[in-house]
Amino acid sequence: MTNAAAPARPALPPIVFGGIRPRARWREMWLLLIVALTLYVGSISLGATEAAAAGKSLTLSPAEDQPLAIYLGALLLAHLAQVVAGRRTDQVLLPATAMLGGISLLLMERLPQSLVSQSFGGLDLGLGQVQLLWLLLAIGLITILSIVVRSDSWLRLYKYTWAAAGIGLLVLTFIRGEDVNGARLILVIGPFSGQPIELLKVIMVVFLAGYLSEFRPLLVEQDTRVGPLRLPPLPYLAPMLVMIALALGIVVIQRDLGAALLFFVVFLMLLYVATARAAYVVLGLLLFVAGSYLMYRLFGVVQDRVDIWWDPFKDPSGNGYQIIQALHAFARGGILGTGLGAGLPLVGGQPPIPAVHTDFPFAALGEELGLVGVLAILGLYLVVIERGLRIAAAAADDFRALLAAGLALVVGVQAFIIAAGNLKLIPLTGITLPVISYGGSSILANAVVVGLLLALSDKGVEPPPPPRAGRRFARLRDAVGGRA
């Protein structure tokens, strides 16, 4: 006889280690293999160019195999950590960021190592070695944040505290900071130094996401009428505008106009994402035009940068020298480029663009990789933006959606601002090219962005797969189920 209804059988428990069930990440693995192969080929090309320039015989070996091997080894460890953690996070962000970091490593190895000289533990490190160190720290930071961060309450509940801390850092930088090219950007505390503005861009996104998600219904449904104009409800928008104005004011006083432009553009984009009201964007653009004209009249540094952008050939050996050399680099690169290591002819033992490793890496890559390489690099930034917006679209609530969108936009807007400045489409702002430019503050801040995006992309614990009973256990299973 057979029972009418067999009792439910409990599912077999998944294989776990210490309460964690590993989960394969095949897409990420294959993409990282493509990244490794691409960087290895690029290193071989760089090595061949350097050997030819030194009159040596051509060999198919990497230019500097040890730094590249260390970098790829760190990526492998990061991937394995994600597998062991078992979280269902995005599998494209890490490879895209890894490719950008690898391009940075090859570029910094190719440039004169004397551009940067630092000592760590009695070791004197050059440009490429220091950049490798920052990239390794960034990979570790991305891995830790993507695995450890499981709740956003520490960001959501303390948005005002984060904003106040960020502005406090800016004030401290203005009081005790060091000048770089006429802008007070570097804060030195004991043996540590950095640019607080890089951290502030993340903090401001957290604040904007928290505030806009909290007051989004009021910003969407209510208006303040001034004659024929329909403006946002000022009582609810005013605190956010005050915080942004305070941050922008301090940045303007510090002469860091690139950061001011970045904050303003991201603010407008997030406001539109939260409200879907084009009127807010139009009003913001009008205010931007008026503010830009006012700053042009009040600040000499703004006038200089606009004048250089308008006609760099007016002072070709002075203020316009770097932008002219950048344009020449893009022209020499053409469509396919001169090849890694074959561009940037030295002038007096130094590259023709003095700030090539910080402000103009895009021009250097444009010369050696050509238009194709430039488009590929911009495509990588578009991938980061697309993955961030995809994460935002799948978010469970407004705060997580706005936070993911804001973090992705910060990377994208910053990349396209500096790329447009190198191409003379807009005045040069002086901000860094994310992940590629030299600088620990910039690399680590962007690592925080990528790590948080990965954490926000988690789809929750994957349900265990259904048990697969073999034929040899079929009779035993049926007997347990009550069949005779």
If you had to describe this structure to a student in words, what would you say it looks like?
The chain is globular, with a radius of gyration of 26 Å. Helix 6 packs antiparallel against helix 7 and helix 7 runs antiparallel to helix 8. The chain contains 16 helices and seven strands. The chain is mainly alpha-helical and 484 residues long. Mean pLDDT is 82; it is low at 8-18, 469-473 and 480-484.
From the spread of the alpha carbons, the general shape counts as globular
The biggest beta sheet, please? 3 strands, antiparallel
Low-confidence runs (pLDDT<50, min 5 residues)? 8-18, 469-473, 480-484
**Structural class from helices and strands?**
mainly alpha
For the record, give the distance between the C-alpha atoms at the N and C termini, rounded to a whole number: 6 Å
Count of helical regions: 16
Name the beta content range.
Answer: 5-15%
Rg from Cα: 26 Å
Question: Please, what is the average pLDDT?
Answer: 82
Helix content percent band:
55-70%
Strand order of the largest sheet: 3-4-5
Helix-strand topology string: HHHEEHHHEEEHEEHHHHHHHHH
- The count of β-strands is 7
